Amino acid sequence: MTPVQHRSHVDDLLSFIRASPSPYHAVASAAQRLEKAGFRELRGTDDWTGTTGGSFVLRGGALIAWYAPEGTPAHTPFRIIGTHTDSPNLRIKPTPDTGSAGWRQIAVEIYGGVPLNTWLDRDLGISGRLALRGPGGTTDSRLVQIDEPLLRVPQLAIHLDRSVNDGLALDPQRHIAPVWSLGAAQEGALLRRVAAAAEADPDEVLGWDLMLHDIQPPGYLGAEQEFVVSSRLDNLISVHAGVTALAGATTAAGEPAYIPVLAAFDHEEVGSGSDTGAQSPLLERVLSRSVTARGGSPEDWSRALSGAFCLSADMAHAVHPNYAERHDPDHHPLPNSGPTVKVNVNQRYATDSTGIAVFAAACERAGAPWQPFVSNNAMPCGTSIGPLTAARLGVPTVDVGVPGLSMHSARELCGAQDPGHLAAILGAFVTSG
Predict the structure, then answer these.
(1) 3-87+231-431: CATH class
(2) Which of 40, 94, 124, 433 has the greatest number of CB atoms lying within 10 Å of its CB?
(3) Alpha helix (H) residue ranges in 176-310
(4) Which residues, given as ranges, of the chain have pLDDT below 70?
(5) The model's pTM
């Protein structure tokens, strides 16, 4: 990719991130982009018989999309890009109205591995979805996004805590209730504010999945703007790259060697154990049904799965200049040197030599660099949806990711060239042999 192409890709990525403060918004944003590329939504209650072309299924914060042109044999193997839509953050409790010492606050719960100090003294908005009462006993869901400086988790002044720099551990019971107004807590005050933003009647709200997000927009950083800084780079970089690759696959000529698939799961940051997570049968059921819809038999499904391959794309760790000793001494990934292949022989990542070969070949076709990543033996290794997908479907899987700093922070950093490299690699992965 040329510098202009890299910049254009990242500009588009930043627009995607701004529009995607929650997993539900990320799925909606991805669906809109796929629809522009000619994909259409299939509902679980629809009849899929004869369905070809680009299709996608939505469920909460998860999206499964695939492209099978008319005439594609039912046994055509899948090339799966695995990603996740969720990020660690603070989520609003069912009874949110609280307060102390004359301040109105809201009660939140910690979601995933949150470095709590990064959420202090940041201007926070609210996003997520509301579950609404519908006609005739039905229910409906509506997205809400308040990009206003509505809340803040204030740091205690150093004059009142001289030991604040001795350690960064925080007591969640004392430090994580954001303030948003003065006065005693008023029951229903937050609900009324959020419902108004969603143009909904508060009396019709039956439940919600709401979370806080940093309203500072994403952007560039560095002397040459060589870095990207933003919330939710983990893992919206990969979701955006996957959507880009899948949309690009529609222009490939001839009968496809593979059916490209994007699986964007929710709840990866808390173990993927939900109906929208990688441990669920969601992907398996959707892919199996897509084979049946094209006239395939159980034998065709087995053949399609036996020839399948999954590339799990998540963020990775760049070497930290202030903590280089925390990394493996011989593996120091750097930004703008290409995505990493993540290896862990204890299967925290699913990569093996065949996976490395498939990824390296895709990198060669895309003209993109890549780097190996291995954790320090003395440090626990993170994981991803790769091993879960490999175990669930029984398909070979390789774990890869853009290297960055400040993973899980309220504001993360990566190289400005690596998102484009990843998208090009994923495009080569799903369209070539």
Answers:
(1) alpha beta
(2) 124
(3) 189-197, 233-249, 282-293, 298-306
(4) 167-175, 433
(5) 0.95
